[in-house]
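--- STAGE predict ---
source: upstream dedup step, 1 unique chain passed
mode: sequence only
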Amino acid sequence: MTPGARLDARQPSANVAEALAVVTAAHPDRAALVGPDGRTRCTFAELAERATSIASSLVRRGLCPGGRVALLVRDPEDALIVAVAALWAGGTVVVPPRSGGW
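--- STAGE serialize ---
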């Protein structure tokens, strides 16, 4: 599902990616990510733009529906955006256990 799609996020069938698309369509200029200092790091529209670009790249690189995307990102903001992108592309997010590197 892409941003702007219609869905009642309160329905039990709504998944995280679909619910985020609904919120993005309804409130594009609201803060989606806020840093520890309380400052907005990313609006819903910015998150959607970045996640859509990454989702397209994942599909071009061969991600198929249900395919796994390993989340190996250090920055929490980037991790969330990549996770959303993977879900919007139809993939499944895999978070490997920490192994001292992060």
